[in-house]
């Protein structure tokens, strides 16, 4: 049967029902060793290219990529369009694994999907070594046709790329185009495609108009950071990173201009999700959720969504107030300096000037802290709010798939009944037609069932992966954020310690 | 002379910590540096906040013979303090002194409004959130309350420490008379009169200010005070704004801590312990941030506000002296005229001598007052700035320790 690369150790709790080890990251269950031992003070600087998440992947050191890449041939002729919507991301056929969730998987037609599983299993250890940086924003052109071009640098040991390190220039719509392609290929079969950063008409207009001021610089930096995080999330996904569109995006110097970049913004996604939810509610036959896992997970993400949004709002408020504090501290510093000037007692005058200097340094400290608040904490939350919308979307696709299956089953039933009736009439042509239709529909029903099984299986894997990522992300980034707070306090102490003798010196 | 110390700093906060109710234990008397310590000691031993007024219990200890007892207390309200202050201002005898500035009116409006809003919004938040916010607002109310008590006390202590003002009869009545002083608030007519008086004063101020003083000392003081007063005003306003932002940020951290707590209780992954730990951390650091804001308020903002009022009082003194100078000069002119016409010369001479005497008396005491003002100012700033720096350090170190220990634990667990 299948020739698995290894037998993964049993994973904990939720995923016990999966008999084949869909555990992509079979680390020993006890430890979540995303311990960022390598974090240094430099990492905290928000001027660097975003949180360096790649250094955290110190999992299984076995390099399974070598095996995987050899088997992968993205231009495989066996790309069957097995699903009715969108092209299949299938790869070279490999012998399928044994039993999956339910027994009724057809083998022949499923091989392209199971081959996927094979590859995913083998990459299980996932020595994730890719690093993508988005840098050097450059304004190209003038006036309203101007745009920002970003340099996208990829560093990777993966042999499927021509070189180990390479750069290209991309603009925002290119990113949106990439996401749009990935979404159309993968969302409906259950893969959680990371959402692209939001469009911003106001922000971009300011940049176009050419105001070289603080707020447009901030906007560009915010966007640059978001684009970097977006790409990193995308390539961290074992399936997406092998997609030809992704590779073309990263590598090719000529990228066809993306048109109709209706970015699946989080607002758009939410609308889509709500529409699907409405459709679900209108279903005459409620889906019999035999698998409690899905119900539980949906509820879990629902709750998580609510809480994350709330937390995000509070953090955004903190960023705002911290910036305000910085501005007000700066103003106070100036005022204290003036007061020191007019004070006619020499020693006190000097002390007040020193106070003004301390406050000035502190206002810079607040400014830096506000940036950390934003780039580390707030953006993390924002990203996850958007990601969870994508997760919800994927669950709804499963519903739709089920609905489709049920619909064709009902139709088949009707046709069978009609055929039975025709048996008693003398209309051989019609009878034959009916039989043909039934054969066709039967195949469709079976396909529908397979689709449903497949999407369910994929979602389980995806959710498991997503949750692991989430845990890692939150731990890493929040610890980094706390370290930024540590730094701020250390600086505070330095400043006030320097001031104290000055204050004591007043006589 | 007396030292202003609004040094309720650390004690004020530690009382809060211990959950001591408003003033069941008397606040320490403001740090006074009296030469004649034992003869007259005044403090506010208790206070009660009612619907729309605050009742202060003024407690006196004295060995002076004019009091009936050695120790006694009376209850006074804010209006009575104002009456006492105004009586000093209106007293010609005290024209040559810096009249200790009146304490500001107790203002709980903002705090009451917030409490009311909280009550109205009770339905829209969880029980924990509500209890938390209620405690916050109650603490805020308590803080404002303690501040207003401190400010009224400082006023009394300044008076008690002043060699001349402490002997004032009204002051003794204020301290001893255990009935209501029936000092009704000024009615509309009186308020209008005050208003016009002030207008005239400032117009005069401009007029008089224009005359260059012969005396270098006073000329310098005038220039200095005018500028200083304006800059203290500005610094005070900016300081208040800075502290408000600080409080807002600390409120945000409070909300963040709550959200993290909820996330921690809901999550099914490893993150739940993580979130709970971070939530706990933020709860603690938030408290420290709130203390920082409170300490900055006490040590810096209040200091600036006080010297805003004192510098105004000093300016008023200078104005009175200028007025006396003008009167003196006018009296001189009148005398010359009288001598020239040889009419009412004696009257003019008497009048001139009186003005001269008045002017010289004011000048002499004013000089001393202004020198003392500088000494007090320098000393108060020194004390407060040192304490501010010490407290900032203490809190930063506390924060640092909490943060570092939490990071250590989190890194160790992951």
TrEMBL record, chain A:
<feature type="coiled-coil region">
    <location>
        <begin position="431"/>
        <end position="458"/>
    </location>
</feature>
<dbReference type="GO" id="GO:0015031">
    <property type="term" value="P:protein transport"/>
</dbReference>
<feature type="compositionally biased region" description="Acidic residues">
    <location>
        <begin position="56"/>
        <end position="73"/>
    </location>
</feature>
<keyword id="KW-0175">Coiled coil</keyword>
<feature type="compositionally biased region" description="Basic and acidic residues">
    <location>
        <begin position="1"/>
        <end position="15"/>
    </location>
</feature>
<keyword id="KW-0653">Protein transport</keyword>
<feature type="domain" description="PX">
    <location>
        <begin position="128"/>
        <end position="257"/>
    </location>
</feature>
<keyword id="KW-0966">Cell projection</keyword>
<dbReference type="Pfam" id="PF00787">
    <property type="entry name" value="PX"/>
</dbReference>
<keyword id="KW-0007">Acetylation</keyword>
<dbReference type="GO" id="GO:0005829">
    <property type="term" value="C:cytosol"/>
</dbReference>
<dbReference type="GO" id="GO:0030027">
    <property type="term" value="C:lamellipodium"/>
</dbReference>
<feature type="compositionally biased region" description="Polar residues">
    <location>
        <begin position="43"/>
        <end position="54"/>
    </location>
</feature>
<feature type="compositionally biased region" description="Acidic residues">
    <location>
        <begin position="16"/>
        <end position="25"/>
    </location>
</feature>
<comment type="function">
    <text>Involved in several stages of intracellular trafficking. Interacts with membranes containing phosphatidylinositol 3-phosphate (PtdIns(3P)) or phosphatidylinositol 3,5-bisphosphate (PtdIns(3,5)P2). Acts in part as component of the retromer membrane-deforming SNX-BAR subcomplex. The SNX-BAR retromer mediates retrograde transport of cargo proteins from endosomes to the trans-Golgi network (TGN) and is involved in endosome-to-plasma membrane transport for cargo protein recycling.</text>
</comment>
<dbReference type="GO" id="GO:0034498">
    <property type="term" value="P:early endosome to Golgi transport"/>
</dbReference>
<keyword id="KW-0472">Membrane</keyword>
<dbReference type="GO" id="GO:0035091">
    <property type="term" value="F:phosphatidylinositol binding"/>
</dbReference>
<dbReference type="Pfam" id="PF09325">
    <property type="entry name" value="Vps5"/>
</dbReference>
<keyword id="KW-0813">Transport</keyword>
<dbReference type="GO" id="GO:0031901">
    <property type="term" value="C:early endosome membrane"/>
</dbReference>
<dbReference type="InterPro" id="IPR001683">
    <property type="entry name" value="PX_dom"/>
</dbReference>
<protein>
    <recommendedName>
        <fullName>Sorting nexin-2</fullName>
    </recommendedName>
</protein>
<dbReference type="InterPro" id="IPR015404">
    <property type="entry name" value="Vps5_C"/>
</dbReference>
<comment type="similarity">
    <text>Belongs to the sorting nexin family.</text>
</comment>
<keyword id="KW-0597">Phosphoprotein</keyword>
<keyword id="KW-0967">Endosome</keyword>
<feature type="region of interest" description="Disordered">
    <location>
        <begin position="1"/>
        <end position="79"/>
    </location>
</feature>
């Amino acid at each position: 049967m299948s020739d698995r690369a290894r037998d993964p150790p049993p994973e904990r709790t939720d995923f016990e029902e999966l008999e084949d080890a869909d555990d992509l990251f079979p680390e020993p269950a006890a430890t979540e060793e995303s311990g960022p031992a390598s974090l240094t003070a430099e990492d905290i600087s928000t001027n660097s290219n975003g949180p360096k998440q790649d250094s955290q992947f110190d999992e299984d050191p076995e390099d399974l990529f070598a095996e995987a890449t050899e088997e992968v041939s993205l231009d495989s002729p066996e790309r069957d369009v097995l699903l009715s919507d969108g092209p299949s991301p299938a790869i070279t056929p490999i012998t399928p694994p044994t039993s999956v969730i339910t027994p009724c998987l057809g083998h022949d037609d499923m091989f392209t999907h199971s081959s996927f599983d094979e590859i995913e299993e083998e990459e299980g250890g996932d020595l994730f070594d890719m690093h993508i940086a988005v840098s050097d924003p450059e304004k190209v052109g003038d006036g309203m046709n101007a745009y920002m071009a970003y340099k996208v640098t990829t560093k990777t040991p993966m042999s499927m790329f021509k070189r180990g390190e390479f750069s290209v220039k991309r603009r925002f719509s290119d990113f949106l185009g990439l996401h749009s392609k990935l979404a159309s290929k993968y969302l409906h079969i259950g893969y959680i495609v990371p959402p692209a950063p939001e469009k911003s008409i106001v922000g971009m207009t300011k940049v176009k108009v050419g105001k070289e001021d603080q707020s447009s610089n901030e906007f560009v930096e915010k966007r640059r950071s978001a684009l970097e995080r977006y790409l990193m999330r995308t390539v961290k996904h074992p399936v997406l990173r092998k997609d030809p569109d992704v590779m073309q995006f990263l590598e090719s110097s000529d990228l066809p201009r993306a048109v109709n970049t209706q970015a699946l913004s989080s607002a758009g996604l939410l609308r889509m999700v709500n529409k699907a939810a409405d459709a679900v509610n209108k279903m005459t036959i409620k889906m019999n959720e035999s698998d409690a896992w899905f119900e539980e997970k949906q509820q879990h993400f629902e709750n998580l969504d609510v809480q994350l949004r709330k937390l995000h709002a509070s953090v955004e408020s903190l960023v705002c107030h911290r910036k305000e504090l910085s501005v007000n501290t700066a103003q106070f510093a100036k005022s204290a300096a003036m007061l020191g000037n007019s004070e006619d007692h020499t020693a006190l005058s000097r002390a007040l000037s020193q106070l003004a200097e301390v406050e000035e340094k502190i206002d810079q400290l607040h400014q830096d802290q506000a940036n950390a608040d934003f780039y580390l904490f707030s953006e993390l939350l924002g990203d996850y709010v958007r990601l969870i919308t994508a997760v919800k979307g994927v669950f709804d696709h499963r519903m739709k798939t089920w609905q489709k299956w049920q619909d064709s089953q009902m139709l088949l039933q009707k046709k069978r009944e009609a055929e039975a009736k025709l048996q008693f009439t003398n209309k051989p042509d019609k009878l034959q037609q009916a039989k043909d239709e039934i054969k066709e529909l039967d195949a469709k029903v079976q396909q529908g069932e397979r689709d449903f099984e497949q999407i369910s299986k994929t979602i389980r894997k995806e959710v498991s992966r997503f949750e692991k990522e989430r845990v890692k992300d939150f731990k890493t980034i929040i610890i980094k954020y706390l370290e930024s707070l540590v730094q701020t306090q250390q600086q505070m102490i330095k400043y006030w310690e320097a001031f104290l003798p000055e204050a004591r010196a007043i006589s | 002379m007396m030292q202003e110390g609004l040094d309720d700093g650390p004690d004020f906060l530690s009382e809060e910590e211990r959950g001591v109710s408003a003033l069941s234990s008397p606040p320490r008397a403001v740090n006074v540096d009296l030469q004649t310590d034992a003869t007259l000691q005044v403090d506010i031993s208790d206070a009660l906040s009612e619907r729309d007024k605050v009742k202060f219990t003024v407690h006196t200890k004295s060995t002076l013979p004019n009091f009936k007892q050695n120790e006694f207390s009376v209850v006074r309200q804010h209006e009575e303090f104002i009456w006492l202050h105004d009586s000093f201002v209106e007293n010609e005898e005290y024209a040559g002194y810096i009249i200790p500035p009146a304490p500001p009116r107790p203002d709980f409006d903002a705090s009451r409004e917030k409490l009311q809003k909280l009550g109205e919004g009770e339905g829209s938040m969880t029980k924990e959130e509500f209890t938390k916010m209620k405690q916050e607002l109650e603490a805020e109310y308590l803080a404002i309350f303690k501040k207003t008590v401190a400010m009224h006390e400082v006023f009394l202590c300044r008076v008690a420490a002043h060699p001349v003002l402490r002997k004032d009869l009204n002051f003794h009545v204020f301290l001893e008379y255990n009935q209501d002083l029936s000092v009704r608030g000024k009615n509309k007519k009186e308020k209008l009169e005050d208003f016009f008086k002030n207008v005239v004063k400032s117009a005069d101020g401009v007029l008089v200010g224009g005359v260059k003083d012969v005396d270098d000392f006073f000329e310098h003081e005038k220039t200095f005070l005018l500028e200083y007063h304006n800059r203290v005003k500005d610094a005070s306003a900016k300081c208040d704004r800075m502290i408000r932002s600080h409080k807002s940020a600390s409120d945000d951290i409070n909300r963040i801590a709550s959200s993290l707590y909820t996330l921690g209780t809901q999550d099914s992954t490893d993150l739940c312990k993580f979130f709970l730990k971070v939530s706990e951390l933020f709860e603690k650091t938030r408290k420290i941030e709130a203390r920082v804001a409170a300490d900055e308020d006490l040590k810096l903002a209040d200091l600036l506000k006080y010297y805003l009022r004192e510098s105004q009082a000093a300016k008023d003194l200078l104005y009175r002296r200028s007025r006396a100078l003008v009167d003196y000069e006018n009296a001189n002119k009148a005398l010359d005229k009288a001598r020239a016409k040889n009419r009412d010369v004696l009257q003019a001479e008497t009048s001139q001598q009186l003005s001269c005497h008045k002017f010289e008396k004011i000048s002499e005491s004013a000089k001393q007052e202004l020198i003392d003002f500088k000494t007090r100012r320098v000393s108060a700033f020194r004390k407060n700035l040192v304490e501010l720096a010490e407290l900032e350090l203490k809190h930063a170190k506390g924060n640092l320790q909490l943060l570092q220990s939490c990071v250590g634990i989190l890194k160790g667990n992951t």
